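Hi R.,

Here's the chain you asked about this morning:
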Amino acid sequence: MRALAAALALALSAPLGAEVPAVWRPVDAATGQIADVAGLEQLARDFPDSASVRLRLLNAQLEAGEGEGALASLRWLAARGHAFSERAKARIPELIGPAHAQAARDAVAGVPLVIGGSTVFSTLPAEAGLIESVFVPPGEQDAVASSVSRRSLFALGSKGNWIDVPIPRAQALSGIAIAPDGNVGWIVSANIDGAMSDPGGFTGLIGLVGPMRDPLMIPAPEGVAVSDLTIGPDDRVYASDPLGGGVYRAHPGAEALATLVPPGTFRSPQGLAVSADGARLYVSDYGYGLAIIDLASGAVSRLVSDVPAALDGIDGLWLHEGELIAVQNGTSPMRISAFRLSDDGSRITGHRILEQAHPDWTEPLGGSIADGALYYVATGQWALYDKGVLREGAKPLPTVIRRLPLAAR
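And here is the predicted structure, written out as tokens:
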């Protein structure tokens, strides 16, 4: 307790942007309501790699007439490649005041660089609905994709066609994970889209080994709606609840998911990745950044970055050859990044942008890694749906799966 108190005291006294201990500050709905400059400055110290937090601070600084602070926030965002809308580019120099207007114009003038490196792997028909994730095994011989709106699994056939595979009691299907040896695989079922409740629907993990008419099921705790998942080297599965904020785990023969990190630690945990030695779990909290869970103790810390990079807005997350591969659909512009980890896995020492502002994207979503490439959903359709059904006047689109090589070019 003394060590934690000392670390927190140092964080409170440190200047904005200074190096502080990697303490993870628990976040909840109330954290998102902080709106005063002082409170947001402290939040920016606690989460020094979150563009979402820095944007909230910028808005508060502009409203309070703190021109120098607002300019510092603009430059912080520019250093991390943040792209402002044309409306914001015109409005911010007016709000910041004449003394800093030109410097503000210079800070927001950047245009996002379009970076592409992927090719189309396959396309699901529009009838498959809202596809959330895809799993492609080594060799590209087959693939499976999860549909949120259809509550079905889709399998890639030998002729390149996608086959609907109904799963009994399935709700919205999202994350997919299969162990490297192919012996263990899971898909997540939960009401994550706010659709009309199905009294007979199953919430939890559904096994992808054996007959789909009577699959193995591991239920989630009451009130928990898991979405993303990953599998560790010991075949233990980890799942996150983006609505409730907790993280859960289970071994293949478990009767139910057990709580690893309770709600209130994270606001919206999304992508998960287990370290190569199975000792740590990396978790993306969508609005705040990347965390590390020590799997032996359950202790949570913040993943520190030694390089300027935005670590929030991460949906999908995977570990590949010492790098965390991240689909960042919550940044502006949207991008896919590779974050190089230190030898001990506690810090980020390098950052590569693999793909950014792709002209054929709608919203990149989940996927999987095989044969040195990321296979991912490139045309997410969440904006077309509301509570599980298409919005009025909207039409479903085909879902494009792209293949992105991960080797440095």
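One quick note: Residues 46 and 310 are 14 Å apart (CA to CA).

Cheers,
M.
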